[in-house]
Amino acid sequence: MSDTTPLLRLDGIRKNFGAIEALKGISFDIGRGEVVALLGDNGAGKSTLVKIISGGQEPSAGRMIYEGKEVSFSSPAEAKAAGIETVYQDLSLCTNVDVVANFFMGREIVKRYFGIPVLQEKAMEAATFKAISDAGTRIPSLRTNVEHLSGGQRQAIELNRFVHWGGKLVLLDEPFAALGVEQTRRGLEMIKKIAAQGIGVVIITHIMAQAFQVADRIVVIRQGIVAGDVRADDTTADEVVRMITGEALRPSPATPAEAR
Fewest Cβ atoms closer than 10 Å to its Cβ: which of 4, 134, 205, 250? Predict the structure, then answer.
């Protein structure tokens, strides 16, 4: 697979809910190490598209080409096994256990002594400490229950865990909605660090400034279609607002099939 091959290509993705057509042929690419801000008004189809990518829903039509191969995920577990993770505003952490337990949940290091399984607590704590330290995340104690950590620290744990376990594409659905200014700043910095490791990032946000701070590209969805697909450096907030509202639709680049 060439380095220029997109990490993920969406080709004509459609989604019907009975007579309602929520997605009407979504096509765009996501590259390795690229941050794509997915913008649009409420009901535009952003969350539906994220659910399709992450295996939560199946498309009614269209193709997903991931790492050069056409894929179809029947569950979030299948997508996660392929390296695709979704981080929502309400994180998937267990708040009544500590950081190490969350980091290794479902992947615990176990050795058997006389047939009895024993958790390797020191090895798991060392691996967790290294992963979190390398990312620049500050947590007072890895043995602190997650319920006692801030929203930003919880989010950092989830993202660090994703990277540590070989994640390739992360979908962030309004990740900073409940965070303060400083925690949001650190979260945006973390996104840049994740992308610098060659991981693709899609971020849904209603805050335009966040999109322009972190995104390489901005994809606007309006009423189930791609209303704009532009480099962040080549557009302005006012122009993106016009795309969102429908005042000035900019066509997305032609898909390979359309180009032929």
Answer: 4
What is the residue type of 199? I
Strands (E), 4-150: 8-17, 20-30, 35-39, 61-66, 69-71, 84-88, 110-113, 116-119
DSSP state string for 26-37: EEEEE-TT-EEE
Gap between the Cα atoms of 152 and 168, Å rounded: 22
Is the Cα torsion angle 93, 94, 100, 101 positive or negative in sign?
A: negative
Q: How far apart, in whole angstroms, are the C-alpha atoms of residue 77 and residue 83? A: 10
Is residue 24 classed exposed, middle or buried when 0-12, 13-18 and 19+ CB atoms within 10 A define those classes?
middle
| Cβ proximity of 214 and 56 under 8 Å | no
Q: Using alpha carbons, select from 144, 149, 147, 200 the residue that is nearest to residue 172.
A: 200
CA distance 231 to 218: 6
pLDDT digit string (tens) for 54-108? 999 999 999 999 999 999 999 988 998 999 988 876 567 888 999 999 999 888 8
Residue 11 and residue 182: Cα distance in Å, rounded?
A: 38
